[in-house]
Amino acid sequence: MQEYLNRVKLAKRGDTDAFAELYREVYQDMYRFACYTLRNANDAEDVVSDAVTDAFASIHKLRSDEAFRSWIFRILSNKCKDKISDYQHSQEELPEDLQSMEDEQGMLESIQVRKAFYALSDEERFIISMHIFAGYTNREIAKILHMNENTVRSKESRGLKKMAAGLEI
């Protein structure tokens, strides 16, 4: 833990190697979160890249060294929300290219789980992704989404029940 905090302190002082090491530690989780949230590998790569660029540019503003992971995921979740908003304003169909990602990286465990997950609303997917992949608590998700904590809990519960029902087929 102390080594981690030292890397954060160095990164806040402009040490690019320290920042790169911190990024390496969270990259897979960030990418997985973005893929599950956006349903598109290319867009996931883009939002992760944008989030890391923004994080690097503003790491000196990080208040708590212990909060690096949640801080960078908050940046990523905002980028994902922006991209989802772009989808909603777009006339195009969303590309479905996660099958090749599954073959290449082994990130998705089953086609049935993925289909059940994608059958959820954007909001349910986003809440579940933030909780499972980014490790946010319901309180943190509620704060980020400007919702009541109980609302977040109930939306997550409903989403998980829908997924379970989709897997019973």
What does this structure look like?
The chain is mostly helical and 169 residues long. It folds into two domains: 1-107, RNA polymerase sigma factor, region 2, helix turn helix motif (Rna Polymerase Sigma Factor, Chain: A, Orthogonal Bundle), CATH 1.10.1740; 109-169, Arc Repressor Mutant, subunit A, CATH 1.10.10.10. The protein has nine helices and no strands. The protein has helices at residues 2-12, 16-38, 41-58, 68-89, 98-105, 111-118, 122-132, 138-145, 149-167. Helix 8 crosses helix 9. It is globular, with a radius of gyration of 17 Å. The N and C termini lie far apart (45 Å).
How are the SSEs placed, and which strands pair?
Layout lengths: L1 H11 L3 H23 L2 H18 L9 H22 L8 H8 L5 H8 L3 H11 L5 H8 L3 H19 L2
Helix pairs in contact: 1-2, 2-3, 2-4, 2-7, 3-4, 6-9, 7-9, 8-9
In short:
The chain is mainly alpha-helical and 169 residues long. The chain contains 9 helices and no strands. The protein has 2 domains: 1-107, Orthogonal Bundle (Rna Polymerase Sigma Factor, Chain: A); 109-169, Arc Repressor Mutant, subunit A.
Please give the domain count.
2
Q: Which oligomeric form is depicted?
A: single chain
CATH architecture classification of the largest domain? Orthogonal Bundle
**Count of helical segments?**
9
- Helix content estimate: over 70%
What is Rg?
A: 17 Å
CATH class of the largest domain: Mainly Alpha
Separation of termini?
45 Å
Could you spell the SSE succession in H and E letters? HHHHHHHHH
CATH homologous group name of the largest domain:
RNA polymerase sigma factor, region 2, helix turn helix motif
> Beta fraction of the residues?
under 5%
Report on the biggest sheet: none
Question: What integer is the average pLDDT?
Answer: 81
